Design the sequence.
């Protein structure tokens, strides 16, 4: 997916100047600035919550050197959308344990949010969510990734995720014999 | 800084790979995940806690469905199996169903409707197990095997299964119009009685098959809990109670609360043979 490059640094800087205390400014690895709802950032990201609470937020843009601008834009977009959405009853009551941890289904808008992403953007976003300690966004992205795998053979999964089959011939034969039943091309 | 042209999903951090695995309830999908690349294989083999996968549905001809996926597989090694438990349980024909509960074996005596504890000891020399005693722990209930309703035989099938630390009895009734109904009871060992229970737990699905029933925890959103999955005409013992004219069988699922049927089972029916269809539970 092509990210809108119109959101250049100049525009972001102008936004920052207008920012009030309800937002924080985040800076991507490639130096782009993004503004995000402080409340949503603190609620959705344990890392950002810690930074806000600890006063380590830089008004000129808090450096997030591990996250590229495309991924950060998606993170910020997600947080801001979340700030505006009303959590459904299902989300609030999702305390049923799935063996070890609560399992939350994505909301309709969250599905759409990840559905529009390219595979590379999804990959970057899941890593960014992991880095920022965003449990909910991790749920949503990992759910999407699992949906992309369901019912597919290993070959089809490799194709979807652009994974090279770098098993040795021997290893592959071993897997095939072990698990012959689980492959479509058996 | 230009992005690398193709990111490699095989390099996804281990904890993220496990998060994805957790969301694959079908055993077959997990197996395939582990076969994609060495990195994912090692992620799947880390032994990190994963929700138990759903069982597989195995038919006598070797057709296997990995629930909740609808696509059937061939599992030739599975064709022509002799019994669902693989062992010789002939002795237990006096019991309509048996189940382990907290390491002990229990049997439901169909004739007397008693719940019995079956004590097993192991011969020190041969390692062969044998029965050292059978004790009645809950006396006969009102459950009877078959009744007449408007001149039709109404068949009951009783199952035992351990679920969330309790021993449950499911009394399934098949009405002449094909409708199935289950009543669930929980064993109260202290008071030696059954307590009727309206629910089996919002995050549990009971997969019933005599002598190998199991309770499987599920995510309530993706796969609704409080459900019982069962086989129609689960009557392989061919006892006097049953009308053996029915030549086909199928499986079904119903929600204890609203009677709805979540779509985790394939719509399939099969000709009844000498051995029944069964659930296969992947190892934890």
Sequence:
């Amino acid at each position: 997916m092509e990210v809108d490059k119109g959101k250049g640094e100049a525009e972001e800087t102008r936004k920052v100047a207008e920012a009030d205390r309800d937002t924080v400014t985040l800076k991507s690895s490639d130096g782009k600035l993004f503004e995000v709802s402080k409340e949503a950032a603190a609620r959705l990201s344990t890392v950002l919550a810690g930074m806000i609470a600890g006063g380590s937020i830089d008004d000129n843009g808090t450096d997030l050197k591990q996250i590229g601008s495309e991924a950060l834009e998606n993170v910020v977009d997600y947080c801001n959308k979340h700030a505006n959405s009303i959590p459904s009853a299902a989300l609030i009551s999702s305390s049923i344990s799935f063996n070890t941890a609560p399992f939350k289904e994505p909301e309709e808008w969250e599905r759409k949010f990840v559905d529009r992403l390219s595979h590379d953007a999804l990959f970057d976003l899941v890593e960014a969510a992991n880095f920022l300690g965003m449990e909910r966004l991790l749920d949503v992205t990992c759910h999407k990734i699992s949906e992309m795998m369901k019912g597919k053979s290993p070959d089809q999964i490799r194709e979807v995720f652009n994974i090279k089959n770098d098993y040795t011939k021997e290893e592959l034969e071993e897997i095939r014999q072990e698990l012959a039943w689980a492959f479509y091309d058996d | 800084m230009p992005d690398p042209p193709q990111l490699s999903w095989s390099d996804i951090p281990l904890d993220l790979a496990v998060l994805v695995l957790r969301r694959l309830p079908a055993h077959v999908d997990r197996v395939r995940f582990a076969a994609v690349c060495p990195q994912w294989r090692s992620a799947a083999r880390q032994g990190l806690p994963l929700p138990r996968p759903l069982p597989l549905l195995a038919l006598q001809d070797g057709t296997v469905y990995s629930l909740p996926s609808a696509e059937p597989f061939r599992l030739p090694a599975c064709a022509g199996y002799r019994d669902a438990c693989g062992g010789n349980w002939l002795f237990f024909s006096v019991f309509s169903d048996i189940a382990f509960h907290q390491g002990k074996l229990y049997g439901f005596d169909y004739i007397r409707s008693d719940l019995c504890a079956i004590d097993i000891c192991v011969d020190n020399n041969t390692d062969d197990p044998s029965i050292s005693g059978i004790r009645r722990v809950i006396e006969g209930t009102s459950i009877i095997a078959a009744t007449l309703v408007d001149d039709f035989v109404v068949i009951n099938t009783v199952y035992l299964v351990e679920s969330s630390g309790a021993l449950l009895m499911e009394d399934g009734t098949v009405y002449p119009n094909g409708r199935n109904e289950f009543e669930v009871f929980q064993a109260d060992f202290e008071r030696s009685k059954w307590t009727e229970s309206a629910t089996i737990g919002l995050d549990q699905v009971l997969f019933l098959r005599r002598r190998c029933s199991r309770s499987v925890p599920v995510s309530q959103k993706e796969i609704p809990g409080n459900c019982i999955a069962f086989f129609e005409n689960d009557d392989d013992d061919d006892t006097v109670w049953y009308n053996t004219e029915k030549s086909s069988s199928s499986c079904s699922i119903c929600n204890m609360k609203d009677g709805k049927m979540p779509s985790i089972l394939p719509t399939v029916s099969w000709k009844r043979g000498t051995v029944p269809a069964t659930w296969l539970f992947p190892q934890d």
